[in-house]
Design brief:
By secondary structure, the chain is an alpha/beta fold. The chain contains 5 helices and 5 strands; from the N terminus they run E-H-E-H-E-H-E-H-E-H.
Length: 126
């Protein structure tokens, strides 16, 4: 089964994405801050990560940089999603190695799953 880690401090957003991705057949965990998310990613090496940029304890951009600097984790697709859709921040996330950057306000779990499948990052879950 494809495992996805969502690193998101907003409980409602985390629940919406978790529920939507689980309906698509994925095993999903939610971490509520950057430190917890990074630790869990290091433990299980998921198929993909959905990463909010504005999270407590360790910012999303720092989590992304640490993942890309760790050889065994550097190839994990990281889909960054944020409400702070500031062009400079988006550019910084892409330079740091984000697979894709989404605007939370207009992105559904289905869009994220389709992007992962289209990019060949993960196979069909079902």
């Amino acid at each position: 089964m494809n495992r996805i880690i969502i690193v998101e401090d907003d409980a409602v957003v985390g629940l919406v994405y978790r529920t939507g991705l689980m309906k698509e057949g994925f095993e999903v965990e939610v971490a509520v801050d950057g430190e917890a998310g990074l630790a869990r990613i290091q433990q299980i090496c998921p198929a993909a990560v959905l990463l909010d940029l504005m999270i407590p304890k360790l910012a999303g951009l720092e989590v992304l940089k640490r993942l890309r600097a760790t050889p065994e984790l550097s190839k994990i697709p990281v889909m960054v999603f944020t409400n702070a859709y500031v062009p400079a921040l988006v550019e910084e996330a892409m330079k740091a190695g984000a697979t894709k950057v989404f605007n939370k306000a207009v992105t559904t779990p289905h869009i994220v799953v389709q992007c992962l499948k289209d990019a060949g990052c993960i196979g069909a879950a079902n």
